[in-house]
Design goal:
This protein has 622 residues and is mostly beta strands. The chain contains 8 helices and 43 strands. The strands form 10 sheets. Strands 8, 9, 10, 11, 12, 16 and 17 form a 7-stranded mixed β-sheet that branches. Strands 34, 35, 36, 38 and 41 form a 5-stranded mixed β-sheet that branches. A 5-stranded mixed β-sheet has the order 37-43-42-39-40, with no helix packed on it. The termini are far apart. The chain binds (dicuprio-$l^{3}-sulfanyl)-sulfanyl-copper and dinuclear copper ion.
Length: 622
């Protein structure tokens, strides 16, 4: 194996890796003969006008609460989709529908997006995501890149260890990062081990109604659950999670949660758990069906693993799962087959919190420790089943063979990668070709914007010797991403003209303003390039109300042409909504400020967009 890094302490290794990267690059450009047939990196990422990228990349926006959509290989940012946070670019969170979706919150911490799957392959229909900040789950429809449903998940706190989707989207599992008493009730931290739990939720998704629901939950021990993955093929009924703080520390986790030499992988059979629920083996708490593993035995097992592991990833063939060390510089390869045998033989080393612990030696296949590679976090796979693990501290991606543990290749990235994502990486048949490293830091890579640097994503060509071929800044914070073949996603171009849609108005003569007590209902139209709120009025683009009225505006965009989106804002009212072609949206506000306020279309829609204005007149109370 080629030696890339001198032996150094963990912390300096990341910076060293970058130095080596530069050195290698400079030397390489001087001395290595260039194969003229070889495409330059610029050519590899160049997508000419009129052509489209080959893949969509969905990057989690972390505490921005948004999802960022990029094209690969160009790494062009093509859209920001608001999920958990208000977004004035799209009016998300102002109109009644999206306000209701947001459930009274203004932000979320979006981690770990996951596509819907059919037979272990991305089907291109939906994307799921979780909110660690406010304990929610969301689903986005990929025909229009819009959120369809968001639910609050009861009894849980911070579903970081999610979302992972089973082979046919039977469930989206949401284990949590924080342990809390069920229902987040008050309980002293002195009673942590007795009263606190890390609840995992099995969330179901109804494809017809596009609604999420909590099917059942498991009251796991009061530990932190970090990352998870669903089985595939032979392991399709199973799933794995990593744990930390099995010490059950209640303060200063930085030190106290790293005391024990080993934490655990939780291995569970969701098909059996589902059956237990059907057989009534659960308790009902706060309206949820909850399985308590110490009471309702079976189907859940623990496997010891080097302390405080981070990611755990199932190989595309479903035969193995790989835990990454975080604090131990090794990846541990476990075998499902061995685990099933150990379960069958009751090959247990004991119990923890009422859950059987499998013998480490019986389940583990090998510990892999590439030379001087430090801080392994997450693993992705290519079309040949080879593994790519991000090294947070030595700032590189290491390619290795899960069958032998042999290191095959390494590439330095800038700097501190958390996750990486491979093309179709979580399916049973990854594409190979591309890997994107999601770097937590982008020190010195871009023009300075002050003390806080942008984060970055780096595109790595993995078709031959690994090579970083493109870099793109990304808003906070790159947690995980998903990469899907572009032709799997089928978007529609305009919302269908549906005359029966409640509150929609399609003909100018049907526009009207109706008063019911102090409620004023406006049935309006947005079209190039005017608003019509009441066609019969002398000034159809004016809404006149009395101070204190509650205004309900239903606005339909009757321009049934692609990309003719209109916006609607009222001056000094902190209001901005959007109506896409053929869409109807409702806005409610209280006209509590007497005065004269221009209203206007915020989204460029025609040469006369600037003329698309009107007035809100609020008559003062006598
Ligand atoms: S975790 S950097 Cu939030 Cu995805 Cu591993
Ligand atoms: Cu409508 Cu601008």
């Amino acid at each position: 194996m080629k030696k890339w890094f001198p032996v150094v302490s963990g912390i300096t290794a990341g910076f060293l890796a970058a130095t080596v990267f530069f050195a290698d690059f400079n030397v390489g450009s001087k001395t290595v003969a260039v194969d003229p047939a070889k495409k330059s990196n610029a050519e590899k990422v160049y997508v000419p006008f009129g052509e489209k990228d080959e893949y969509y990349l969905f990057a989690s926006g972390g505490h921005s609460g948004q999802m960022f959509i990029y094209g690969v290989p160009s790494m062009r940012h093509i859209r920001t989709v608001p999920v958990f946070s208000q977004d004035s670019a799209t009016g998300y969170g102002w109109d009644e529908h999206t306000k209701e979706l947001m459930g009274g919150y203004t932000w979320g911490d979006l981690h770990h997006p996951a596509f819907s799957e059919t037979n272990g392959d991305y089907d291109g229909k939906w994307m799921f995501a979780t909110d660690v900040g406010n304990s929610r789950a969301a689903v986005m429809g990929l025909d229009s890149f819009t959120v369809r449903d968001i639910i609050s998940v009861p009894n849980t706190s911070g579903p970081h260890c999610a979302a992972f989707v089973t082979e046919n989207t039977e469930y989206i599992f949401l284990p949590t990062r924080f342990a809390v008493p069920l229902g987040s009730e008050y309980a002293s931290l002195d009673e942590y081990s007795e009263k606190y739990r890390g609840v995992m939720s099995a969330v179901s998704f109804d494809e017809t109604t596009e609604k999420l629901g909590v099917a059942w939950q498991v009251a796991l021990p009061p530990w932190s659950y970090d990352l998870s993955d669903a089985g595939k093929g032979m392991s399709k009924d199973w799933a794995v999670l990593t744990t930390y703080n099995t010490e059950e520390a209640t303060t200063n986790l930085e030190i106290n949660a790293s005391q024990a030499d080993r934490d655990y992988i939780v291995l569970f059979n969701w098909k059996e758990l589902e059956k237990m629920v059907a057989d009534g083996q659960f308790d009902e708490v706060n309206g949820q069906k909850i399985i308590f593993p110490e009471k309702h035995k079976g189907s859940i097992y623990l496997i010891p693993v080097a302390k405080s592991p981070h990611g755990v990833d199932v190989t595309p063939d479903g035969k193995r799962f790989i835990a990454s060390g975080k604090l131990a510089p090794a990846m541990t390869v476990f075998s499902f087959e061995k685990a099933f045998a150990a379960i069958g033989n009751k090959d247990f080393s004991g119990e923890r919190n009422g859950i059987p612990v499998l013998n480490y030696e019986s389940v583990m296949e090998r510990e892999v420790n590439p030379e001087n590679a430090l801080g392994p976090l997450h693993t992705q796979f290519d079309d040949k089943g080879m593994a790519y693990t991000t090294m947070f501290i030595s700032s590189e991606v290491v390619k290795w063979d899960p069958n032998t543990g042999e290191t095959l290749d390494r590439v330095a990235v800038q700097y501190s990668p958390g996750h990486s994502v491979a093309a179709e990486g979580d399916t049973m048949s990854p594409d190979g070709k591309y890997l994107v490293a999601l770097n937590k830091i982008a020190k010195d890579s871009y023009l300075s914007v002050g003390p806080s640097h942008p984060e970055s994503m780096q595109l790595i060509d993995i078709s031959g010797k690994m090579e970083v071929i493109q870099s793109a800044p990304v808003n906070p914070e790159p947690h995980y991403a998903q990469m899907i073949k572009a032709d799997k996603i089928k978007t529609f171009t305009v919302y269908p003209k549906d005359e029966n849609r409640p509150n929609s108005v399609w003909k100018q003569e049907d526009t009207r303003i109706e008063r019911i007590g102090d409620e004023v209902h406006v049935y309006g139209i947005a079209m190039r390039s005017k608003f019509i709120f009441d066609a019969k009025s002398q000034r159809p683009d004016v809404i006149e109300v009395n101070e204190g009225d509650n205004v309900v505006l239903h606005l339909t965009n009757i321009d049934l042409d692609q990309d003719i989106t209109h916006g609607f804002a009222i001056n000094m009212h902190d209001i901005n909504i959007e109506v896409q072609p053929g869409q109807t949206n409702t806005l409610k506000f209280k006209a509590d400020k007497a005065g004269t306020y221009p209203l206007y279309c915020t989204n460029f829609c025609s040469a006369l967009h600037q003329e698309m204005t009107g007035y809100l007149l609020v008559k003062p109370k006598q």
